[in-house]
Amino acid sequence: xxxxxxxxxxxxxxxxxxxxxxxxxxxxxxxxxxxxxxxxxxxxxxxxxxxxxxxxxxxxxxxxxxxxxxxxxxxxxxxxxxxxxxxxxxxxxxxxxxxxxxxxxxxxxxxxxxxxxxxxxxxxxxxxxxxxxxxxxxxxxxxxxxxxxxxxxxxxxxxxxxxxxxxxxxxxxxxxxxxxxxxxxxxxxxxxxxxxxxxxxxxxxxxxxxxxxxxxxxxxxxxxxxxxxxxxxxxxxxxxxxxxxxxxxxxxxxxxxxxxxxxxxxxxxxxxxxxxxxxxxxxxxx
Amino acid sequence: xxxxxxxxxxxxxxxxxxxxxxxxxxxxxxxxxxxxxxxxxxxxxxxxxxxxxxxxxxxxxxxxxxxxxxxxxxxxxxxxxxxxxxxxxxxxxxxxxxxxxxxxxxxxxxxxxxxxxxxxxxxxxxxxxxxxxxxxxxxxxxxxxxxxxxxxxxxxxxxxxxxxxxxxxxxxxxxxxxxxxxxxxxxxxxxxxxxxxxxxxxxxxxxxxxxxxxxxxxxxxxxxxxxxxxxxxxxxxxxxxxxxxxxxxxxxxxxxxxxxxxxxxxxxxxxxxxxxxxxxxxxxxxxxxxxxxxxxxxxxxxxxxxxxxxxxxxxxxx
Lengths: 286, 318
Ligand SMILES: [Zn+2]
Hints:
Shape of chain A: globular
Distance between the termini of chain A: 25 Å
Strand order of the largest sheet of chain A: 1-4-5-6-7-8-9-10
Oligomer: heterodimer
Number of helices of chain B: 14
Largest sheet of chain A: 8 strands, mixed
CATH topology of chain A: 2-enoyl-CoA Hydratase, Chain A, domain 1
Largest sheet of chain B: 8 strands, mixed
Order of helices and strands of chain A: EHEEHHEHEEHEHEHEHHEH
Bound molecules: zinc ion
Radius of gyration of chain B: 21 Å
């Protein structure tokens, strides 16, 4: 198969005219401290609020730009899967929801993957796009993860997955549930070959994604302040009929409860990954 | 007997039969002919109601309180059951029960969700909603089965994993992921049967088998129809619509190649004819276990993993 979709190099300078096209986006309001932030400033500081450290949700391409050496990488062509396999419709047709999400995100589905170098190590990175139907995992995302694993095996590369997902995609019914098993089988193949499998949990990671490949990393990191859990907090509040503690299901809470290895600020993420890759695949550098 | 809302005609005839019997026992009259007529009518109405259940009706049947549960199957089909308890880390979670037992002359491991059958047991078993320790116990039992090289039979019957604070504190996500993963990597045969409700991640953790079978009126879904309706229709009242859309019946899943076989239920459902339904499960288990008797551990893992990998892939397995 043809793996290459396109080769990308991080843009050196930001397009100054862009702000004129979208005047609403000059200023961002920080969800952490409600401060008004100049968009260009936020973009320069890894999309972290300079006042309170809030980590803004990151578009997947921006994530890749940030992680790879020199911001250079090759986007992987991801296989086609059945669109709307159940001909699902609720108040809206799933086919229409898909069309809208594709138009909005310019993405085929909620996941992109790329191959390149991080600290000189050969790495495949897969990142979720939360703005595509809440980053939900259906057949396309499952197949994309399986494909990312195949490429990692082929290249003897490490795999880094960056989930941001509300869980399984309801509109694909049981077929999305099966992705939990499929992605588990896939990442197990890396383990058998002793290729590192690293997960970077970002805001939010919940449901069937948390209950499958996202918690099976050899190394599991999380961004500060990310919501990570299995059950939604609203569902839990309904069950127990009381308010939950403020840091419930936040990355610090997961660290305290032994569910992850470290909470790593975005500005230090690349460094931490380089350190880990250096320890886990020293002989494979080059 | 608890009657479902589409069983009102059946309920009416059942009531007439009971009246007739008690009247006859009082006055000693001969009611044989009338009884036969009513029984024929009853059979007709049961066939009529169960001939083509809607997905929503199937959900009701799958959750029927009288439907045999894991503990009933263990009593009826497995001899010398030796219950194993606890996860060796935190607690005993009775939402998942299991242990060694004898089946068809061989030792095997049986593990299943248990919902309980009355208020007391339902509370004790947490309505079949397992917490992390339940999945950890399941992993422990699977590994034990592997150690003794005996097959694993899993019986799936849960509305889902427990959605609560304690579950999150103790790693519900990881526990489910690890259990699914253990099931997928087991070096002994795994045959899974969805006996009632297969609810989401809490179900697949025990259902990643070499063979996955479903009872005719069981359901297996990514989300409950009520949950789906409240999210996508913004109102839980549309549950029957969501049930149609989710394609969660055994018949749908066989078509989608997610399961391997359907175990027929007696007309009228497993809750009405529990003994017959359980015998059908016995026969299916015997058949499907026998298929793996000669398989090597490598072949078992390979078949199971490739089966799941091939699912939902375009052009796979055609
Ligand atoms: Zn802020």
